[in-house]
Each structure stands twice: as C-alpha cells, then as structure tokens.
Amino acid sequence: MNATENRAIVIGGSLGGLFAGILLRSIGWQVDIYERSPHALDSRGGGIVLQPEIVEAFQRAGVVYEPPLGVVANERYYLQRDGRIAQRLPMRQTLTSWNLLYGHMRRHFPAAHYHPGKTLKAIQQQPEQVTALFTDGTSETADLLIGADGPNSTVRKQLLPSYQPRYAGYVAYRGLVDEAQLDSATAALLTERFVFYQLPNSHILQYVIPGADESLVPGQRRFNWVWYVNHDEQTQLPNILTDRTGQRRDYSVPPDLMAPAVEQAMQAYADQVLAPPFQKLVAATQAPFVQAILDLGVPQMAFDRVALVGDAAFIPRPHTAAGVSKGAANAIAIADALVAQDHDVANALHSWETDQLRLGMHLWKVGQELGERSQFQNY
Ligand SMILES: Cc1cc2nc3c(=O)[nH]c(=O)nc-3n(C[C@H](O)[C@H](O)[C@H](O)COP(=O)(O)OP(=O)(O)OC[C@H]3O[C@@H](n4cnc5c(N)ncnc54)[C@H](O)[C@@H]3O)c2cc1C
C-alpha cells in the first residue's frame, strides 16, 4: 500500500502526541492531531532532561534546530544543610524545557492539521478503520488512532477501564526563576549544574533550562527546581490540589493557580527545612506549581488499530527523567514497525507492542524503586 494513502488520528497534542505526529508524517502518513485544550499548551514549561530518544525523534522527523537543544551541565553538586557542597560528581547532561520541545514540534507540524479544542468522547473500531467521536458531535475516521491523551486518557478508559493512575504518596512542587531574579552568589552556585539537596524522606533538585522564549543565552535562561514532598492522600492532598478558585484538580495545579495558603505553607516549610540556596530559589519563585506523583502501568498498548503511548500507557516516576523520552521512543518504534510491516496497521502494532511494554515496565519499576527509597526509606 502507498503510505500516502494512510491516515492517522492522534488524540492529545502535548509532547507524546506531537512526537507521534511528526514521526508518522516522516514516513509519509497523513496525520491529524486533536487536542482538548483550546489554547496553546504554554503553561506547562518545566525542565526536561534531554535524553537521546528526543534528539533522535527530532532528527528523523527533520525538525530544524540549532544544537545544543538545551543548557549543558557538566557536574552534579550535593549540598549539605548549611548550603556548602558535600559532594561533587562530574556528569555531563543537557537540560531543556517543555516549552522548547513543544515549540519546535508545533512549528514543524502543519498548523492546519493540529486541531485545538477537540475533546475525544469515544472510539469505534471497524475491521478496516477506526473512528474518533468528539464531544462536539463531530467524528473522524482513519486507519490508525494513537491515544496520547495523558494520565486521564479517554482512550485507555474505554479499552482498559480498570487501569487508572494511582497516587504515589508524594507531590512535586515546582518552580521557574529567571536568571536575573536570583542573587549572584546563589546563581553562581546553581548555574549550569545539576544541584541536589537530600533531606529525610524528601529531596529537591535544580538545573538551568532555556528561557521562556527558548533562549539559551546566559542571563536569559531560568532556574528550574523540583521538590518532592510526602502528603497524605486523604487528609492533605485534596487541599493541595484545590486551586485558588476553589476548583479541585485531578493531578496538578498549574502556575498562577496554586491556592495562596498552599503556596505560603510550602514557602514556610522551605524556610524550615531546605539548605539556604534552595530556600532562596523557592522564595524567588513567582508562580510555583504542583503535580501529584502517579503510578500507572498497563498490560496492553496495541488494540488492533489503536495504540496507547506516553503517559496514557505508563507513567514512570520523574526520577527516571524518562517520561518524555519514552513518548519519543514509542513514536519512533511505531514508525519503524509500520515501515517494516509495509504499513499494515494491525501487524505493525502487534510487532511494536512487546518492546514498548518492556520499556514501560522497566521505567515504571526503576522509578518506583528510586522514589520509594528517597521518599519513604531515607530517614
Ligand atoms: C515533576 C515531574 C518532572 C518530570 N521531569 C521529566 C524529565 O526530566 N524528563 C522527562 O522525559 N519526563 C519528565 N516528566 C514526565 C513528563 O512530563 C511526561 O511523561 C510527559 O509530559 C507526558 O506527555 P504525554 O504527551 O504523554 O501526556 P500529557 O503531557 O499529559 O498530554 C496529554 C494531552 O492530551 C490532552 N487530552 C487529554 N484528554 C483528551 C481528550 N479526551 N481529547 C483530546 N485531548 C485530550 C491533554 O489536554 C494533554 O494536552 C516529569 C513529570 C513530572 C510530574
């Protein structure tokens, strides 16, 4: 079959959906991405470790970029309680941002085929096609449907209704601080390094990422921090996930919407327990945000003409720094499988699934081990 006759629907227009979109287009498929949010997804911009799969996906899809795709850190520092350096480790990593990856892929993917404000309601599979039904009453039919609709995936709920994310017992408070907003001594310690402070059953880390406008120019970038704090699911979590308008959110509260009391409690706790450079970093943060850490793993990712990818299938804990790169790996492998199977969707997804399940399970397990050790066995 001629690849250009093939059409894919991607549900979810975040990083996982965009990786699928650009990779499928690179092998000649027509692709349309349907994203629930009516706006550009620009408020999620935390830091991302640039793993090789992300670079490979960009290269294969012909995404134009100037290397490096992020800020290079050459070493890790572990601080002690008074802020002095307890340990230095040489380790070169490139740190990028959600915004930079999203921006590059949005510019590469044709705008006419990216459809914001479209919410999937259900899917229907026929032997030769798959149809997406949207909440606005419209529908679209294609040869392949990719469920890249994240932790609350509608695609997964229909195909695997008993598999839902489970709260891992802790949250990630996160924040971004412009380079110019931090005092020079603290900035000098934290710049172009991966810096950690470990405390009993908690840790905080930071690294420099591109600026909000994707700038890599020193002085125009941002410090990105993530602080893992345990909170009881029944007595504390509902309060933390209730935003400043009083709305209870599923798993995260975005920047500018954290309830003032929650933000103040976090700041006060930071002043009480963190090493001084991290206290300053947290205090300098204008709009912190918070995400519940989740566990999710599925036993199946291929369902005839439907594939589950990214966080819709497996949510590895962030200590693996591999959630985004797993979405890239899922998409690269689907493209390879389709080419290898002469674009026969059912055969391609069948052959694709085994390795992807193995990858998801592996990251899921490693992430759980790292998280349990640092949050619950580290007195
Ligand atoms: C604290 C923290 C730090 C992290 N750090 C890293 C890191 O350093 N490196 C890394 O690789 N990963 C990291 N991750 C993980 C990474 O953020 C996720 O794995 C990744 O963003 C998942 O992308 P996704 O596209 O699969 O899902 P999502 O980003 O959740 O996107 C799903 C999309 O689907 C849309 N959608 C949902 N339902 C529907 C519907 N019914 N119809 C249409 N659209 C719908 C949503 O609006 C959303 O845009 C981190 C995660 C956390 C919590």
Describe it for me?
Helix content is 32%, strand content 28%. The protein has 10 helices and 18 strands. The strands form 3 sheets. Strands 3-5-4-12-13-14-11-16-15 form a 9-stranded mixed β-sheet. Helix 1 (15-26) crosses helix 2. 46% of the residues are buried. The mean pLDDT is 96. Bound molecules: flavin-adenine dinucleotide. Flavin-adenine dinucleotide binds at residues 11-17, 34-37, 41, 46, 48-49, 119-120, 148-152, 154, 172, 174, 226, 291, 310-312, 318, 321-325, 327.
Total domains, how many? 2
CATH class of the largest domain: Alpha Beta
Order of helices and strands: EHEEHEEHEEEEEHEHEEEHEHHEEEHH
Order of strands across the main sheet: 3-5-4-12-13-14-11-16-15
The end-to-end distance, rounded to whole angstroms, is 60 Å
Structural class determined from secondary elements: alpha/beta
Please name the CATH topology of the largest domain.
Answer: FAD/NAD(P)-binding domain
Bound molecules: flavin-adenine dinucleotide
Would you identify the CATH H-level superfamily of the largest domain? FAD/NAD(P)-binding domain
How much helicity do the residues have? 25-40%
Number of strands: 18
- Catalogue the unreliable spans: none
Strand count, sense and barrel status of the largest sheet are:
9 strands, mixed
Arithmetic mean pLDDT: 96
Radius of gyration: 21 Å
Query: If classified by CATH, what would the architecture of the largest domain be?
Result: 3-Layer(bba) Sandwich
What general outline do the C-alpha atoms trace? globular
Helical stretch tally: 10
- Classify the beta-strand content into a percent band: 25-35%
